[in-house]
Amino acid sequence: MKKRIFVAREVFGEVLDFLAGHFEVTANQEDKVLSGEELARILADKEGALTTLTERIDEDLLSRCPKLKAVCNIAVGYNNIDLTACNARGVMATNTPGVLDDTAADFAWALILATARRLNEAEAYVRQGQWDKWKLKQFLGLDVHHATLGIVGLGRIGQVVARRAAGFEMEVIYHDVRRAAPEIEAACRARYVTKEELFGKADIVTIHVPYSRETHHLIGAPEIAFMKKSAILIHAARGGVVDDDALVEALRRGAIAGAGLDVFEGEPALHPGFLELKNVVLSPHIASSSEKTRFKMAMMAAENLSAALSTGDPPNLLNPEVKAR
């Protein structure tokens, strides 16, 4: 008899066809965001789950799903999954690293350019019929070429963002918990600096770190206070890395020139202050959202699930302790 799995959010038909060849599949193609209670009830008799960042996998849920053996996230981030609880219950957890690096980096650059050149303000101005003449000082923005780009987190996506900066002849500086290898610094033309120097020197600060207890509010009022008044902050990593209250206050006061944001604390809810501000570009967590990349992510997660429940050795295992046991 085929093992039973649940696909927690809408996926591509080809992904469902692949899974149906291996499993008895129940799928939430209506794309309803399930409550913890609903998810636990559905997973009670399932061996595997294909999840997204909207499904919380914790001890409370796992205690009610004794047959569950694998949870495979359609995402690089996995802060929705309690790995400690998974280890205790013998549940394998996987993610989808690498496949979205270029697409996410492209979107970071979209936010950089839109924010630096005030594209959202200018577009709204035209759409509202306010454009009646050319003006020398209209929507003055920040030059990206020859500017200093500060990257917080020189991981896979941060490195791609850094390499893109060569086309704009930028100076690239970065900060991370560990300094990158010399060959990575050379390929990225990036120089390691302290956190304080990065925020004080960069014209554009872009964030590329995962969310965890250690990175919660990694960027808050003290860091923003170091920034130039003409600088902009770009955030397409994970909500919670930036203190949204502090950022809204800084943008209101004009302490920095602007921000481009794809992620928020408590999303899809967001700080109402962002909606009142013109100097912020907002998008709904779509940095990886090209058709090709999102398909690859979903298929990689499906392949992880197939391997987990057939061989016990999925390629992107986050908690190898379970396999060792």
Record keyword descriptors for this entry.
325 residues, Rossmann fold, globular
Largest sheet, spatial ordering of strands: 8-7-6-9-10-11-12
Largest sheet: 7 strands, parallel
User: Proportion of β residues?
Assistant: 15-25%
CATH superfamily of the largest domain: NAD(P)-binding Rossmann-like Domain
Q: What radius of gyration results from the CA coordinates?
A: 22 Å
Q: Could you please describe the fold and organization of this structure?
A:
With 325 residues, the chain is α/β, with parallel strands linked by helices. The protein folds into two domains: 130 residues, 3-Layer(aba) Sandwich (Rossmann fold), CATH 3.40.50; 182 residues, Rossmann fold, CATH 3.40.50. 37% of the residues lie in helices and 15% in strands. It has 14 helices and twelve strands. The strands form two sheets. The protein has a seven-stranded parallel sheet with strand order 8-7-6-9-10-11-12, with helices on both faces. It has a five-stranded parallel sheet with strand order 2-1-3-4-5, with helices on both faces. The chain is globular, with a radius of gyration of 22 Å. The chain starts with a strand and ends with a helix. The model has no long low-confidence stretch (mean pLDDT 97).
